[in-house]
Amino acid sequence: PETFYLKDYAPFGFVVESVELTFRLAPETTRVLSKIRFAPNPDAPDRHFFLHGEKLKLISSRINGEAVTPVLTDTGLTCDVPDQPFTWEAEVEINPQANTALEGLYMSNGMYCTQCEAEGFRKITYYPDRPDVMSTFSVRIEGEEKVMLSNGNPGDRGAGYSEWHDPWPKPAYLFALVAGDLVNHPDRFSTGSGKDVELNIWVRPGDEDKCAFGMEALKKSMTWDEEVYGREYDLDVFNIVAVDDFNMGAMENKGLNIFNSSCVLASPETSTDANFERIEAIIAHEYFHNWTGNRITCRDWFQLCLKEGLTVYRDAQFTADMRSAPVKRIEDAIDLRARQFPEDNGPLAHPVRPEAFQEINNFYTATVYEKGAEVIGMLKRLVGDEAYYTALDLYFERHDGQACTIEDWIKVFEDSTGRDLAQFKNWYSQAGTPRVSVQDSYEGGTYTLTFRQTTPPTPGQDHKDPKVIPIAVGLLNPNGDEVVPTTVLEMTKAEQSFRFEGLSARPIPSILRDFSAPVILTRETSAEERAFLLAHDTDPFNRWEAGRELAKASRIAMVTEGASPDAQYLDALQSLVRDDALDPAFRALVLSPPSESEIAQALADQGVTPDPDAIHDAAETFAQTLAQNLSDSLPRLFAATKVEGPYKPDARDAGLRALNGRILALLTRIDGAEAAAKQFETADNMTVQNTALACLLKAEKGEAQSQAFYEQWQDDRLVMDKWFALQVATARPERAPGVAEALTRHPLFTIKNPNRFRAVMGALSMNHAGFHQADGSGYRLLADQLIALDPLNPQTTARMCTALQTWKRYDADRQEKILTELKRIKAVDGLSRDTNEMVSRILD
Ligand code: BAL
Ligand code: ZN
Fold first, then answer.
1. Domain 435-524 listed as CATH 2.60.40.1840
2. Which residues are catalytic?
3. Cβ distance 278 to 307 under 8 Å?
């Protein structure tokens, strides 16, 4: 397969002045007529007229009204064209019904919808399908569907047709079309400058009652972007559509966001608190793309982090403002360590701005998105809040309507702050998670912190330069008072010391506050000091982090030395859980153990081969000991943290329910699952019903309730995804592959629906000891499923291959078994480019 390189970028030979599209919809024979005005591009090195096109049946083509015969290949067409502006017209036929890859125009439950990012538009018609080619689009849709939508503002509409015009030039990846029997949840929004905008969430009939929360989230997002970034919406209409079959979470098409139904539909009866929080964040994310992504887009796909890192950063700021900033920061750190660190430290490691790819879909990664957002956060920390917003104003002013690069982005900060950010760019170009170690000394009132940074080699990058690392530090004195408030140290060298003078006693340092950089911090320190920080740190993130470090140390000692759960840590947990002065959501996070995969990684980092079963046993023993130690207070704590009154998905109630759920999980270990059974009986919202069922299934006392849940919810796809996932997630390790395998034969399992596939296979890959069963049954099942899915949906198949990226952590037997499966996948005849690239990189 061809590899594409950043260094090869050249502008397209033509600019596109306008695009007119007509769609004649038919499930198996949709006709797409295009009329595109091209003009020579004076900035391009050549005038080679190549239009992308895949799986298209060309019916006819004309230039300036004259029929032409282009040369067709598997990937597009070429044609001789005039050396002056001209009109290209083509008619193609496509088959949405047969499109199971869910890229381009496809059908989902009888409804037409599109996904064009990154390179789906070329499956709709012949076009220069690259983000630096921007144009206005006029669209006419002809069909029998009740609702027919596209980007921009609505135009004429009549029996059997609907017209749309998008006045904002955009790349083809932002094109969208939806047509089907849809109903809307309407609302309106008045922008700061008084523009009245019609808002709609379009859903299948029956889902109307699940739109109100998403609509509120949209209006909050619109207000927030005006208040915080000064960005207003720019069309008369903003449409959101919910679709059941969707590879991603959602898509920011101009004026017509398309959402995986799991990321927009919400009701108390069917959605958990976590679903509500995620929906609010994704609605915001897609809306925020209107400026960071759509008005200013990417020059090429190597620059994906330009829009994704920034937009993830913006949606994280939004969530922090809507909910709790410390809780959001802790959740983001957990997520980064669970998904991005393994990527950055394994065979799939790539820079935040990659320099080569075979299939761009494989680079919609935690590194581009989440590490990309961390890089923005560091930049903001380094320049300060005010300078950050000044730079952003300049970014919008200078680059509105353009397709940009990371260089453009950095230049805006350099120009507006006067700083030289050359070294900072290493964060974009060099992969791998930096390790930062720290040593301290205290003498004559001066406290010195000495940091050392190294970044291990990653594929294709043996050498790493030092990065600019903002290290937020606070110092506490032994009675818990803060003697030096949070100060950002700017580390730029491989080794660097920072002094704090005039201290009357040796302080206790709180380092990397608020997780100020995405690095692995190592510091030899005592359990006492960690327990002190867990009790006293004024920085909530580091308070949680101290607990996490204690938890990890205890777990590792249990696995490697056969130690008992650390008594001091158990005591600390007990006082925290009982401390009503603390935010319940924070207490829930402190009570949430590190994942078994995280412990496996921590062991591997210490040169110990992780044994998944031993790690699982240690987790179980720890939780059982904690439950027994707390046994006297658990029933009281459970009652005291119960949320009374009607369900509200706000941060306060959700935090309390999270704590209550953690307590129920402990209580279930000692009360014969009585409280969980009662909660399941009386549940009036999905959060408590789901929690109760999880506890019951984990205790292997939930068969009847699982059946009842199934009967209650079998007609609700999204709730059934939870039912599928829960059974695999809670299964004892030795049962997990078998449970997952049986579920793939369940009548409601369908490999064609990405949500259902991920519910089962994603849950298996996250049941650490289950997936890594020594007999290799977990690996074998995943490989069987990936081989079955690849011809239907390469994108989702390739994404799921990441479950195998950590293979080098494990013992020789497991490695051998994983390699066997990887090779089996790679040997499949006609394997997709997506999956082939992922498997090859993992094997390398
Ligand atoms: N642009 C792909 C989906 C998202 O990141 O919003
Ligand atoms: Zn995005």
1. yes
2. 286
3. no
